[in-house]
Amino acid sequence: MRTREEQIADLENQFGEEGTFAFVDDRDAATKHIIEAEQRGYERARAECAADTRRIEYFNRYKTKAISRWNDNLGRYEWSVQLDKWYPTFRDAIDAAMEGGNG
């Protein structure tokens, strides 16, 4: 992963190739792009944490039982909180239970 400064320099060079901005404008534009991308990443991480919190609260509230099994065909574990269907991840299993009632 490149540092912020490396990313800014790369964007700055790309903007400069077009010749539409002055050096200071190129650097400012590149900096704004990087900061915006970082902010989107932080927001995405917060949203994922909030979704996981809702899953845990649901799981605890309904005392849902989760079980896993090894799938030889896929070479991975699958999860279920409803015994009628298996899901590739624990999150997927809880989400399905949340959508279908209290599991």
From TrEMBL:
It comes from the Bacteria. This is Uncharacterized protein. It comes from Acetobacter pasteurianus NBRC 3278.
